[in-house]
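Q: I'm writing up a methods section and want to include an example of the input and output format. Could you take the sequence below and give the corresponding predicted structure tokens, formatted cleanly so I can copy it straight into the document?
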Amino acid sequence: MILFEHVNKTYSNGFQALKDVNLTIEQGEFVAIIGLSGAGKSTLIRTINRMHDITEGTLLVNEVEVNSLKGKSLRKFRRGIGMIFQSFNLVTRTTVLKNVLTAKVPDLPLWRAVLGIFPKKDYIQALEALEQVGILDKAFSRVDQLSGGQQQRVALARTLAQNPQIILADEPVASLDPVTARQVMQDFKKINKEMNISVLINIHHVELALNYADRVIGIKNGSIVFDGSAEAVTPEVLSEIYGGRLEEAV
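A: Here is the clean output for your methods example:
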């Protein structure tokens, strides 16, 4: 479970990105976070794995107070949270399988990590992760030979190899064409339902949010202005979230 209680985030330049955020997200939920650029969507999800520290309030993940973690305990905590980015963050000049195996590096003894020697069980798990996202046949292909959608699936498989309880995705389909974006969203949905992994997606495309997420959170100027089911998102709700800039809700 993820719990925000009166969370605020103010950056060093004085910009307040989150304002009195109160949220409870249960294990296994699929949540889409929508709003204008700069509304606080990315900041919200990046506080969960402590890429950004909160300024005030309490943030608990599975009853662990995130801001209290340091050093080894913080690194261990982050192993249970997968992070997917718009830019994929892959090593493009090596194989798909080797990219997925990088998820296992933090768990290796130093000598294995240096030499790139993985135990058999890690190879099996990496191949299983590729099968889960439908690209097992690409395991020995170089990443730079893949389409954008396939590369995002590699990033998702790498995250699955961590055995996460939570996946955070920051605009994961923003650079993809509409057909590929829907395919990737289907992958997220499948993983969410079959593996009971909580999925939180910061997404620009409202239509995709409504089609795939069970719950939608709307942020405006750092504050939560809507929290409910996808079915409850009406034109009036979108007007509240986006103001006079509804053209950005595409």
